[in-house]
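Anyone opening a protein record will find just a pair of labelled lines. With that in mind, the following record should read easily:
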Amino acid sequence: MRRRGYGLRRITTAADNRHLLQCARRRKILTARQVASQLSADTGRPISHQNVSLRLHEGELFARRPVVCLRLSPVDVRARFYWAHEHRSWTP
């Protein structure tokens, strides 16, 4: 069993963690490396992208791929609506 207080000390403070999560939520397209370099520039202390990734996971932010879908034109939206309206009485 691991005792509390043993192990490496954290490089980031609670304020750093809040700032990091805020930056990641504002600019969702940034990678962990980019957030790490931004935080290092802001605080003046070096921080690794692994630390940033761990802090983001603790803040329940995970990397996800955006869903790629085509935008529908107003004509396509109207056509889909009419098709669904005509076929609403179909049974499986």
Summary: The CA atoms of residues 14 and 20 lie 10 Å apart. The chain is about 50% helix and 0% strand. The radius of gyration is 23 Å.
